[in-house]
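Let us work through a complete example step by step.
Step 1: write down the sequence.
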Amino acid sequence: MAAAWRAQGHDVTILNMAQRKLDDVLDNGAVVRQRRYRLRPIPVKWAKALDFSWQLGVIHRRKAIDCVLAMGLESGAAAHRFRKRTGVPFVLNPRSGMKYKPGNWKHDRALMLTRECDGFIGLSQSAMQDWLNTTGLPDDGRFHGIHNGIDHSVHEGGIEPVPGVPDTRPLILCMGGLRKVKGQIQVLDALKQIEDLQWHALFAGDGKHARRIRDHCSKLGLDGRTTWPGTITGAKWRWAFRESALYCLTPIYPEAFGNTFLEAQLAGLPVVTSNFGALPEFVLDGKTGFIAPEAEMVEHTASALRKLLTDEALRERMGAAAREHAGTYSWDKSAREYADVMEKCKTARA
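Step 2: predict the structure and record it as tokens.
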């Protein structure tokens, strides 16, 4: 995003909350100010907002800030305080749905920031609408859903086989954090229903429910038909996408956005997924893959997998459509849409 903004002629400073101090300039020209917040004796719900609103003031004195994009609630609280002092507008992107219950201070802060922000950007139309529904606020024109972009060169480079993956093909790729809500258990249940077909499944990722999910795999008797390498990156990551015939992951919670689903389509893989959250916005049911409805999700997932695994022409046709569809996403497009929102906020404050 910063690189795209720089290419479009904007000055960009990235302010991070981190464990160590760092001042740097990225290759794209964006300035990075990384700061460890100093006010540790003060409760965290106030300290980071105080400290980083002060950091924004330091940047503003060097060169006037036109608008702050606050990614997350802590950043939003800092931008809100900064606006009180300077009048500089801020756009809030919470990066997820509302996760907090009424009465929790984070819920109260989220509600206040949503009311107060000059503009609001969700990672998708679904995420934006979910936030409105949860907070009960009206859509007064400040709210927008903007998809992430994708680096079109992400699959370029050398490859290295993932250890432990046999020669059995087709290969099904299931990549994502090993958490119950990500849906690997449902994928395993669907795979059990197509045990009569030839396939092998690569479950890449790690997470707090890894043991529980692996135990479920063992109970189903699928250990010999699955490989679990943990998190893979670089050449192994590229190999997994190039070697696989399709991508399957069925989250059971509202995904605000799913970068991996877009990366899979860019690699030319048909996608089998669920209809939770934003997934139907960027996986086109019946064209770039199949979307399993919440009701009887496992059965629908198994049926979709069977169709794709037994019909190579269908896989190729959907894979080509998936690659073309993913190619319409770019960071340049996302950056322009974000910049349009921020420009409107700046004009409204003038």
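Step 3: interpret the result. The chain has a mean pLDDT of 92.
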